[in-house]
Amino acid sequence: xxxxxxxxxxxxxxxxxQKEALKAPAQRVVIHxxxxxxxxxxxxxxxxxxxxxxxxxxxxxxxxxxYNFLVDREGTVFEGxxxxxxxxxxxxxxxxxxxxxxxxxxNNDTPTKEALQSVKQLLxxxxxxxxxxxxxxxxxxxxxxDTACPGENLYASLPQLRSLT
Length: 165
Known about the structure:
By secondary structure, the chain is of the alpha/beta class. The protein contains 5 helices and 6 strands, in the order E-H-E-H-E-E-E-H-E-H-H. The protein has helices at 8-11, 41-59, 113-128, 141-144, 152-162; strands spanning 5-6, 26-33, 69-71, 77-79, 97-102, 132-140. Strands 1-4-3-5-2-6 form a 6-stranded mixed sheet. Strand 3 (69-71) and strand 4 (77-79) form a beta hairpin. The longest helix is centred in the first third of the chain and has 19 residues, at 41-59. It is globular and about 35 Å long. The two termini are 12 Å apart. Keywords: Immunity. InterPro entries: Amidase/PGRP_sf (IPR036505), Amidase_domain (IPR002502), PGRP (IPR015510), PGRP_domain_met/bac (IPR006619). It comes from Nothobranchius furzeri (Turquoise killifish).
């Protein structure tokens, strides 16, 4: 089942300062959490996305929102940098990865089955469109950097995302 993605224009994203294309399909997927409060509904989640993008571009001096995609608790997938674009989500590991952020703080919250299912569908779609290597590896941000991200409860759910069946 194809995943429905809310595109950048729909959530009012600012234009990126610049974009760098991945040179090949992403070899790895890195799962993050935004570590912010959960959002609900398009209006509230759009506000969160704009806030994250401003933080990344203004405070952290990124070219754009750092993640390739974000997903809310209802399973809505939002386009960040999108497919085939180098992200800014895992220092030293952005040139062969796809960064997907679950919106919320998963030290406290538990990822919903809707969000997990949507990310699975997104990854299947990425493989079928050749943006993601068919034998990709999936990591939590903490596996590649000194961080608690993506939170205990989401990290514990990663095995569910590794099995795309």
